[in-house]
């Protein structure tokens, strides 16, 4: 049992996430009418499909994904490009393909592909000997930046700024653990200051050119930040009311009297807390911590170098999603539309997260085989 503690903790956490997700989405029926009142059944179906995928990746599929990671990376970029021409528009964003009754979001798969591709590039660099430090580090950073920049531009044009943030967060965390020279951090800081100053100048003195670069949606994104800073906005205000008034045990299952937009996705944590209260929220956060620490512990074990970077990328992606989603529902961070991993409704995101579970379990399984 001790050798499988990481696996047991992760499986236990996923079971809790399934129960929390289905129950929470079920309670949104009162606010979601018509075709949207059966989302909990669709979420259950996504979990079934995701579980089958998890088993496949755990025992067989991950090695195939690593072998053809570049081809998969290119293919998903082609899909992101196709979105701009053929994607369906939802709330002003072209983030989904519609295939019959099923919608598909390529950026969710790109997160996984990006993590694996960056990890493979870094591990190959670390395996090399007789490196010329600054020169080789420059080409490594350039390659990693280009690999990240391509899907970032395509995703930004959808637009989906929240996912772009995740792309670069994955990149920066992986770079941090490569052990590159500290000079690059100074160079990067100067670049950020220069880019920020340039954008500020263009916004003030060349507004038309600035808008041609970033698009008119920049004003909507800035408005969400300002609303957060001043604790204004219909979504945030009602979310705070629902959480604050729920008390220790909540309003009761399926008894939430406070409406807020997107209760099944962006504000699923508010939905859950309104039903189960402060104690329920503490329980969910406790399970999330068990889940996250199990992943982090795996990264500290004796595993292959590329797998170590993959686990680090997965950890930061999940941790950021959890932190951002929960924090934005209580006003600590701006509303960015980042779903709560494993809990929020969504086929593409949930299946991609179950894919990630398969990767984690595969790496742990291979570690245990080697150890035994």
What does this structure look like?
With 372 residues, the chain is mainly alpha-helical. It has one domain. The chain has 13 helices and three strands, in the order H-H-H-E-E-E-H-H-H-H-H-H-H-H-H-H. It has helices at residues 5-26, 39-67, 69-86, 106-127, 133-156, 161-176, 183-205, 207-214, 217-229, 234-245, 268-299, 305-329, 347-371, and strands at residues 88-90, 93-99, 102-104. Strands 1-2-3 form a three-stranded antiparallel sheet, covered by helices on one side. Helix 1 packs antiparallel against helix 2 (39-67), helix 3 runs parallel beside helix 5 (133-156) and helix 10 packs across helix 11. The chain is globular. The mean pLDDT is 86.
Number of strands: 3
Largest sheet: 3 strands, antiparallel
Structural class: mainly alpha
N- to C-terminal separation? 14 Å
In short:
The chain contains 13 helices and three strands. The mean pLDDT is 86. The protein is mainly α.
Sequence-ordered SSE layout with sheet pairings:
Blueprint: H1 5-26, H2 39-67, H3 69-86, E1 88-90, E2 93-99, E3 102-104, H4 106-127, H5 133-156, H6 161-176, H7 183-205, H8 207-214, H9 217-229, H10 234-245, H11 268-299, H12 305-329, H13 347-371
Antiparallel strand pairs: 1-2, 2-3
């Amino acid at each position: 049992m001790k050798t499988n503690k990481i696996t047991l903790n992760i499986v236990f956490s996923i079971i809790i996430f399934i129960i929390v997700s289905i129950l929470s989405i079920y309670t949104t029926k009162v606010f979601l009418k018509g075709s949207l009142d059966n989302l909990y059944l669709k979420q259950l179906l996504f979990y079934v499909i995701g579980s089958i995928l998890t088993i496949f990746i755990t025992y067989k599929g991950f090695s195939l994904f690593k072998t053809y990671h570049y081809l998969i990376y290119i293919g998903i970029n082609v899909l992101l490009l196709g979105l701009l021409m053929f994607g369906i528009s939802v709330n002003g964003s072209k983030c989904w393909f519609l295939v019959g009754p099923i919608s598909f979001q390529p950026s969710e798969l790109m997160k996984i592909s990006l993590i694996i591709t960056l990890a493979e590039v870094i591990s190959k660099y670390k395996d090399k000997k007789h490196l010329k430090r600054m020169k080789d580090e420059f080409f490594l950073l350039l390659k990693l930046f280009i690999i990240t920049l391509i899907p970032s531009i395509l995703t930004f044009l959808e637009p989906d700024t929240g996912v772009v943030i995740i792309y670069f967060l994955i990149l920066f965390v992986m770079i941090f653990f490569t052990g590159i020279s500290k000079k690059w951090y100074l160079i990067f800081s100067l670049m950020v200051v220069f880019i920020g100053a340039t954008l500020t100048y263009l916004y003030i003195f060349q507004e038309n050119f600035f808008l041609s670069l970033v698009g008119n949606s920049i004003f909507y994104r800035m408005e969400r930040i300002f609303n957060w800073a001043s604790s204004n906005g219909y979504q945030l205000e009602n979310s705070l009311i629902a959480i604050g008034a729920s008390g220790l045990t909540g309003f009761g299952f399926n008894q939430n009297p406070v409406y807020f937009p997107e209760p099944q996705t962006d504000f699923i944590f508010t939905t859950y807390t309104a039903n189960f209260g402060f104690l329920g929220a503490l329980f969910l956060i406790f399970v999330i911590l068990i889940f996250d620490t199990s992943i982090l512990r795996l990264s500290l074990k004796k595993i292959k170098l590329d797998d170590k970077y993959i686990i680090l990328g997965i950890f930061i992606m999940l941790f950021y999603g959890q932190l951002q989603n929960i924090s934005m529902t209580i006003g600590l961070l701006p509303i960015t539309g980042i779903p709560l991993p494993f809990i929020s409704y969504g086929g593409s995101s949930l299946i991609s997260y179950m894919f990630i579970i398969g990767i984690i379990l595969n790496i742990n399984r291979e570690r245990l085989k080697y150890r035994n």
